[in-house]
UniProtKB/TrEMBL annotation:
<keyword id="KW-0472">Membrane</keyword>
<dbReference type="InterPro" id="IPR003597">
    <property type="entry name" value="Ig_C1-set"/>
</dbReference>
<feature type="domain" description="Ig-like">
    <location>
        <begin position="44"/>
        <end position="131"/>
    </location>
</feature>
<dbReference type="InterPro" id="IPR007110">
    <property type="entry name" value="Ig-like_dom"/>
</dbReference>
<dbReference type="InterPro" id="IPR003006">
    <property type="entry name" value="Ig/MHC_CS"/>
</dbReference>
<keyword id="KW-1133">Transmembrane helix</keyword>
<protein>
    <recommendedName>
        <fullName>Ig-like domain-containing protein</fullName>
    </recommendedName>
</protein>
<dbReference type="InterPro" id="IPR013783">
    <property type="entry name" value="Ig-like_fold"/>
</dbReference>
<keyword id="KW-0812">Transmembrane</keyword>
<keyword id="KW-0393">Immunoglobulin domain</keyword>
<feature type="transmembrane region" description="Helical">
    <location>
        <begin position="145"/>
        <end position="168"/>
    </location>
</feature>
<dbReference type="Pfam" id="PF07654">
    <property type="entry name" value="C1-set"/>
</dbReference>
<dbReference type="InterPro" id="IPR036179">
    <property type="entry name" value="Ig-like_dom_sf"/>
</dbReference>
Length: 223
């Protein structure tokens, strides 16, 4: 005899073992003709997301949905187990455990955070990973972009200052060349005058009146 049955519209709280038994009761004694068991296993649902505190600082949220039995949950950062987190558990037909991890101030190093979960329905633990840079990016400009922008602005400022200094130096040199020195002496060129000097000759005759006499050129004849 073959026995089969189907479970429809299962929910997370429907986890458990279901048994289907076929009996013959028409003729005493009662006899079991067949038994079929089905185990419904609900594995935990694990997710990581970035959230913010009321003051705007970033956090990572590890949310796990599961049904019955206890759940183990850990935070791991680069292989090290962390204890600085807080959790709360709620029940709405199934259990939902939320664990929050506050991120430290942003650094230039990208850090990988992991949420580790173990449950009785699992063959091995579940692990979800999230990079810290994802949460920092959602909170604003990343540190790499800020560093690049600040570096470019610094270089531009240095180049501008150097350019202004060079231009000022060139203007000063040009000004010194265009202005004549103060207090310099000026020596006029000599002017030659072709006036002939006159000599005063005194006559030995008469009243001794002076007679102006100009030199006369003497021409020598050849002998």
């Amino acid at each position: 005899m073959e026995i089969s049955f189907e479970l429809l519209n299962l929910r997370i709280q429907d986890a458990g073992t279901y048994t289907c038994t076929v009996k013959r009761i028409a003729k005493p004694p009662e006899e079991d003709l067949g038994i079929e068991r089905v185990q419904v296993i609900v594995h935990p649902l694990l997710s990581l997301s970035c959230v913010k505190r009321p003051d705007g600082s970033p956090m990572i949220l590890c949310s796990v949905g599961f049904y019955h039995d206890s759940l183990e949950q850990l935070w791991i950062r680069d292989g090290d187990v962390l204890n600085s987190s807080y959790s709360n558990k709620s029940f709405n037909g199934f259990f939902n455990q939320k664990s929050y991890l506050t991120l430290p101030p942003q650094t230039f190093t990208d850090t990988i955070y992991s949420c580790w979960v173990n449950h009785s329905s699992l063959n091995k633990p579940l692990v979800a990973n999230l990079s810290s840079s994802v949460c920092y990016e959602r909170g604003g400009v990343t540190v790499n972009v800020v560093f690049i922008i600040s570096s470019v602005l610094t270089i531009f400022l240095i180049i501008t200052v150097m350019f202004i200094a060079v231009m000022c130096k060139c203007y000063r040199r040009a000004g010194r060349r265009s202005v004549s020195p103060v207090g310099g002496s000026f020596t006029p060129e000599p002017v030659l005058h072709a006036h002939l000097q006159s000599e005063m000759l005194y006559s030995t005759l008469g009243n001794h009146h002076p007679v102006p006499c100009s030199p006369v050129g003497v021409r020598l004849s050849p002998q």
